[in-house]
Amino acid sequence: MEIDLNDYTVIKEGEAEILMHKKNKVFFNKAQVNNRDMSIAVLRAYISKRKQEHEAMLSKRARSSGKAPVKDVSSEVSKEETPIKNGEDNGKTNGETSQDGAKEAVKTTYEPARRELKPPRVLEALSASGLRALRYAREVEGIGQVVALDNDPASVEACQRNIKFNGLMSTSKVESHLTDARVHMLTNPKEFDVVDLDPYGAPSIFLDSAVQSVADGGLLMCTATDMAVLCGANGEVCYSKYGSYPLKGKYCHEMALRILLASIESHANRYKRYIVPVLSVQMDFYVRVFVRVYTSASAMKNTPLKLSYFYQCIGCDSFHLQSVGRSLPKNKSVRYQAGVGPVVPQDCTHCGKKYNMGGPIWSAPMHDQEWVASILNGVKSMKDRYPAYDKICSVLTTISEANRKNFKELLDVPLFLCLHSLSGTLKCTSPSAAMFRSAVMNAKYRVSGSHVTPLGIKTDAPMEVIWDIMRCWVKNHPVKAQSPEHPGSVILSKEPSLQVDFSRHVGSLSKAQVKKEARFLPNPEKHWGPKIRAGRQITSKHVSLIGHEAVNDHLNGHKEGEEKQEDVTEDDEPELKRQKTEEDIASTS
Description:
globular, SAM-dependent_MTases_sf, about 15% strand, Phenylalanyl-tRNA Synthetase, Chain B, domain 1, alpha/beta, 7-stranded mixed β-sheet, disordered C terminus, 23 helices, 3-stranded antiparallel β-sheet
């Protein structure tokens, strides 16, 4: 069937091009270029890592068997014996003997078919326009088949159209199917080396089938855009979807990452599987995690050690974590027991207020620094192939900060403090981030920033030390008196037990900060965020999502038969008045 290009807009991203219908029939969000670029960078690192692990496994097996690799045996046979072509002998006895010897050597070591590493199969569970699948197929070297699924006929039609539009390479590597992704994943257990979940909203309904569909050592990439739920606006909804109760705090975006990781681990445990996070990021309006999935009933027992409940004081920024489980050595084995608690009294020891309890959340490391360094190096070496290079490079740089050995984002410190929030509790001016970090490091504790916010402070210093630092700061920068019951007044009423040194520490700034490299970039354009679900009619209510111009163009497109705006019916006038008022406000702001 011929395609009328007048009805479509050609969108190019990376090396892929797609046709988007002007009536918003299939979902597409330009802002997700950051997500797609980060996924391609991780996928490239995974393919390289997978190859290294396979070669290391073969070497280990060859050493343990005491045999040379098959290729060496076959090469020796070809030199010393009569050559054999296409598995057939040449009719001579020595040829038969050499063939049997070669088979014996192959059988003693490993079959070539088993030794051969097949290209990774990728499943994009919710493909929509198919742009992500097309970019994987065209840009990632060494990738195998990419299966794109969707249960919306319009999306599958658009995906198939875009596959053909991108030429022979895409048609040979990408296949699109109209099916429920959950059913497809359940009926294909451990079939895919990479599973990509990027739904519109919560991924919770796909997690159970996704963890079953990933091959051992495979990569699961998962996005969650329901940030209001994950960040504590609807705690009961979050608990019903993810099995964790969130609390409102400045660390809410990192908490969202850890809730998602805990939920994936919970689903994996039901099938004697567990996850190992390699990268977890919060970007724009969503969180994105990259985890490897393994099968091991014994390793799965460590899950309670990776999860924690957390207590947040309602009066100040103090929070504490309590592990769900613990392990004790027993002879040559390990004994697992419930965690010991509570770790906090009924009232906060700093301000006297009560605690809220949330969780459980993932309290083990969210990143693998070796992976992060590898991904970052790969991105920098292929700068021209990433449309969102600046953004993903800044995020990876903030996570790694590899040039400062003691300054990279602390992996074993869940959540973080906010410097402005600490100052807000005491009603004082805020110290600079470098000064506060110096005070913590001079007190012999570790400290780092967070990739989530430039104001985040990760540290292993106890809250007593944090508040002592702030008390000493306030002594040099007095504040107005507050009511005695105010949390800040209660905290400041206690004398500091620590002599704080605010002198500049050599490690208070990372090399990226010293060089003034960009780490937290502004949005590249207005209305850079979530977009309207495909198929929904655009109205004046969507101004905050797509802007006045896009809304006006759409509304005017539906009124082409009218000559002037004065000819509209009385029912439409209130809507147009609201629209004009919003335009006036926007133009004056």
